[in-house]
Amino acid sequence: VFAVSNVLYLSNYNSLVDIDGNEYETVIIGNQIWMAENLRVTHYRNGDEIYHLTDNNNWGTAVNGAYCSYNNDEGNVNVHGRLYNWLAVDDPRNIAPGGWHIPTDNEWKQLEIYLGMNADETNSTGWRGSDEGGKIKGLEHWNYPNTGATNESGFNALASGYRGDANASIFGAIGYFSIFWTTTSSDGSHSWARRLHNDHADIRRPVHYNRDGFSVRCIRD
Asked: Any bridge partners for residue 171, and if so which?
């Protein structure tokens, strides 16, 4: 255990290991404990396999939870984790390790308020705040200019790109975007997410199609 600024880092809080044996760094930010790495798991908590979809047509028409690696290249997994559609995030078999869960939209708002965002502003869509995104962006694996990045929270968000949408099923924006799912649905086919860009220090709160593939961070129960 060691301290940096006002943030307490725990290298392996309560032995955070997923069902595949992947270990994750964790970080305390305010009253929350977050993964400091993107999820890499390929099985639900009960041992069932998450569908591994590489074909564009299958990804775009998926009716079940699915994952892939960026550009279908397993070499990207160690740094960037895997990309999951929202159907995997919402599956009751749970992709989070025991004692952890995928954060809700409100839990993301709690993080943003702790980082300095006005509480009323957290309810807005689009780009919100000022430097809160910079406080959670890592200093590596981002393309220039990585605006405002300090990673002073220890969250270490990476520009891991995405897979979407269901019409194109393309990979894009590695080095430029970081997009994280929440568990909060918007209208049945879209759900809330958070986006960080290499040229923004603030945080975007959009809704995205449930078949899109984004990064996942977990938060402790």
From this structure: 163
The three-state secondary structure class of 163 is strand
CA dist 26 and 70 (Å) reads: 23
Tokens of 157: 């968000």
Token couple for 200 = 């923004």
- Cβ-contact 70, 163 below 8 angstroms: yes
Helix (H) or strand (E) holding 190: strand 190-197
Cα 40 from Cα 53, distance rounded (Å): 15
User: What values do phi and psi take at 107, rounded to 5?
Assistant: -70, -35
3-state secondary structure of 155: coil
Query: Global pTM?
Result: 0.92
Q: Give alpha helix (H) positions in the chain.
A: 56-60, 77-80, 86-89, 105-114, 132-136
Cis peptide before 165 (omega within 30 of 0): yes
Contacts of 143 (CB under 8 A, 6+ apart): 159, 175, 176, 198
Query: pLDDT tens across 148-195, in order?
Result: 999 999 999 999 999 997 666 789 999 999 999 999 999 989 999 999
Show contacts of 184-190: CB within 8 Å, 24+ apart.
184/104, 184/105, 184/106, 185/90, 185/210
On whether the CB atoms of residues 117 and 98 are closer than 8 A, the answer is: no
CA dihedral 99, 150, 30, 83 (to 10 degrees): -20
